[in-house]
# Entry
Amino acid sequence: MPNEFYIVATPIGNLADITLRAIETLKNVDCIACEDTRVTKILAQKYGITAKLFDCHKFNEKERSEKILNLLAQGKKIALVSDAGTPLISDPGSVLIETLLKNNVKITAIPGACAVSTFLSQLPRNSEDFAFIGFIPRNQKQQIEILNKFKHTNCIFYESPNRLISTLENLSINFGADLKIAVARELTKVFEEVKINSVQSIIEYYQKNHLKGEIAVMVFEHNNVQNDDEIKEKIKLLKEEHYSAKDISIIISKLYGINKNKVYKLALN
Ligand code: SAM
# Structure
C-alpha cells in the first residue's frame, strides 16, 4: 500500500493564510477529496493547483473511504481538505481516517489555519487549559449541561450567527449577566471582530449591530462553586452576618456568576 495520504489545512477566510507546504502538497497530489469541490476550486485556481477534485463529506464519507483506498492501491497520492481550516476539527474526516489507519496507510497532516487556535491566540487567559466542544448543541438544556461540565475551564464553541443571541441569553439566565465571554466574528476576514465583555454587554452590542458571518465563542472559566451545597454554605455565612436574601443573591451571583434568582430561592429556604 503506498503511503501518500495528506490531511491539509486550508484558510478560514483569508485566502493568503495557507502554508507553502500545504500548497506544495496540494500541487503534488493526484486527487483532492474535498468537503465541497466548489469551495476548493476557488483555492485551487488561486494557487495553480490542478489535482482532480472529488467530494468527500459527512454524507458519503464511508463510501468515499473505499474509493480512496482503491486510488491509494493504484499508487495515487491523495489529500483531504475541508471547506475551511483544519479537517476533522468540527469537520468530516474521522470515518475516512479510521478506515485508512485500519488499512495501514501512513497519514501526514499539514498544519495551518484553525478558528479555535486563531481565536485562542489573541485571548488573555489565567491558565493554559481550555475545552473545545465544537458546535454547541441547539438544545438549551444540553447547552447548560455541557458548559456546567467545563465551568472550571475556558471553554470554546462554534455557533451560527442566527442562534448566537438566544444561546447567549441562555448563558446569561443560567450563569449570570456578568459571565465573561469573548466572541470572534469573521476571523482573518475584512470585517474581523473580537469582543471580550460580559455576556449581557455582548448581547446588547449584537442586538444593535447586525450579526452575520462566522462565529466562535469562549466562555471564560467562571464558577468556583462546585454544587448547591457549596452555595448553601456561602449563603449560611452571609446570613450569619445578617445580610438579606436579596443582598445575598446579588453578592453570590456577582462573585460566582450563578443565576441571581437561583441564589435568592436558596437563600429564602
Ligand atoms: N475546520 C474549521 C476550523 O479549523 O476551525 C471549522 C469548521 S466548522 C464546520 C465551521 C465553523 O467554525 C463556523 O461555523 C464558525 O463557527 C467557525 N469558524 C470558521 N471560520 C471562522 C472564522 N473565520 N471566524 C470565526 N469562526 C470561524
Q: What stands out?
A: DSSP finds eleven helices and ten strands in the chain. The radius of gyration is 23 Å. The first helix runs from residue 20 to 28. The pocket of S-adenosylmethionine is lined by residues 12-13, 82, 84-86, 89-91, 114-116, 158, 184, 186-189, 214-216 (CB under 6 Å).
